[in-house]
Amino acid sequence: MLSRFDTLLTRIVILVVAAVLSTFILVFFIVQFQMSSRDEGPRDALHFAETALLELQSRDWPEGMSESELKQLKIDTYFIADFPLVGPSTGDHHDQLRARLGLSDETPLGVAMSGPGFDPDGKVRGPPRGGRPAGDGPQQMFPPGAGDRDRPLAKRDFNPQHGAVVSIGLDENRWVNLRTELVSMDSPRPSLLPMIVLIVLMIGIGIWAAVNAINPLRQMAKAANMLAADYKHEPLVEQGPSDVREALRAFNRMGRRLETTVAGQRQLLAAIGHDLRTPITSLKLKVEMLSDPNERERMSRALSELERITEAALAAATAGQSDEPFQPVDMHSLVDSLVEDLCDLGLAVTFEDTDARPIVMGRSDELTRALRNLVENAVRYGDTARVHLIERQGRAIVTIQDDGPGIPGDSLERVFEPLVRLEHSRNRETGGHGLGLHIAKNLIEAHDGRIELENALDGGLLATIILPLKTAA
Amino acid sequence: MPDPATTRPEHILVIDDDRDIREDLKSYLTENGFRVSTAENAPAARRAIHSEAPDLILLDVMMPGEDGISLCRSIVRLTAIPIVFISARTDEIDRIVGLEVGADDYLCKPFNPRELLARVRSVLRRSNGRDRDMTPEKTRYFEFDRWTLDTAKRTVTRDDGVIVSLSTGEYQLLMIFIARPQIVLSRERIVELSHAEGADVFDRSVDSQVSRFRRKIERDPRNPEIIQTVWGGGYVFAADVKKL
User: Fold this and answer.
1) Cβ neighbours for A367, distance < 8 A, ≥ 6 positions apart
2) What ipTM, to 2 d.p.?
3) Which residues of chain B make contact with A274, given a CB cutoff of 8 A?
């Protein structure tokens, strides 16, 4: 069950997907790490503070602001009081703010950043360590929960938020205090959807790549099967990566070679068969003129054997190679006529007549030859042959049963190979030439049919020819 | 056994490029009462025919130079000499072409010498017109009732295009009948004709052969329309035969 999935394809898919996924995860963490060490957040928070302060300055520091206005300015808290939220301090941010707001160097200015990695004085530092004593400096004034120091370190690091707190002393008892909303330091946590889309896309690409890589192999398997079936080679398209192309090219070379070799052998066999016909004719005429009847009889028998083998070799060489068009053939009359002719030749053949009148598409002479070979085989090894014809499930089925010893189960397929004879003595009295079944198989397969051999339950060999019926036009 | 009806031996010209076949045929036919001359190619054959026209020509299909088919065509155009093809090829197409170019019969190598003799005698008898109801038959297709007979392929096709197979005996029976439509043939005459056609196998009684044949060909075998039984006489092929 499992082995069905253990294909090269699944292996490549797994490999590609695993490689892509691990790269993806690695890249994800690297990007996370880099993003967390960027300091865009404070600048963003300061930027909000700066914008808000400019706005407030232009309105000459109003006593209060409406909620919606504050929200628009991304301000969390704004009030004027006689104390500063953050004590005056100095730093890069301060100079920048002073310049933008046009404040003199004497104006007291406190800037603090809240959030992890920041000291109250706004200096960027390394990651904060836990356990920092609370309560010293302006920090204690932060409303609880405004910072995220109390959250576990890992979580904070993953999604740090920062705000800016600014206090400007207008005079000794008037301080503008402003705290911006908390701003995420970097883009929000990568959402799951694009990740899934990406993963699916990558798996898809992986499968596509793997299928593409495997395709030539599958094509080759198909072509090899065809080659094995009837030595017909359909050239594969030589495409793909260079090593695959080389493999395809090699396969094509092998296929062509095999095809021409087999075709050449067939032609050779046919040519020899043809050329033997003339001397056999000549010998027959000579034998016919012999005066000694005994001698004549003996030589005539030997000649008949020679002729039979020659004709069988010729038939094997040309079986299924005809290009005569198929015609509808009435199987009942075909079987009936053949059995009749074989009976006239003295063979013990019976045709158990039925009402079935199946019509198949084919060449009647080839179908007759195939059937004849099977019947002769049955009579040779099993003394008698009983022929049946039935029509079932769109097929014409001819069975030939004999009373012989049958065939050992492991040899049932082998007997279709040319020149295979199962009896150990190559005794001509009983032995055929070993081509009959091979020819029959070729001919029937040329008709999209098949031959099956099995040992019948009540003894003897059962040969079955199965042919597709002519489809109603 | 020389043909008793001839006063002088009949002359056969054997044309074959194979010397053995020529010599063997010459000996065999001479032994069986014929006068035989030979030619190894088309030009030699033309010279031989020119110097003395034979009664029958045995012609090999495959010859170097001009082949048998072409030679046959030209002989048929100029003379009425019957021609029997002998060929090492069994392809149906060869037989068809051979009969179409006007040969009287066609034999495949390796043939049975006795069959050759029977065919040669049969063709000679027909061409001499000694068998008056055995007219030389060169038609390839015959039509009768709803059937078409192809004598080159030896098949019978029904009007729906289905090929119906005939046994050798049934085919011979049909050939006897189709050449003699509307003529009453006695059982004895049918047996006689079948032997004259060179048929080895015709042991089965004529009645059972006819009945088998009817089962394949007749619409209703119990009420036959094509081959009818003539009371006290034999059988008659009642269907109209059309030559195509």
Assistant:
1) A329, A331, A334, A360, A443, A444, A447, A467
2) 0.73
3) 88-89
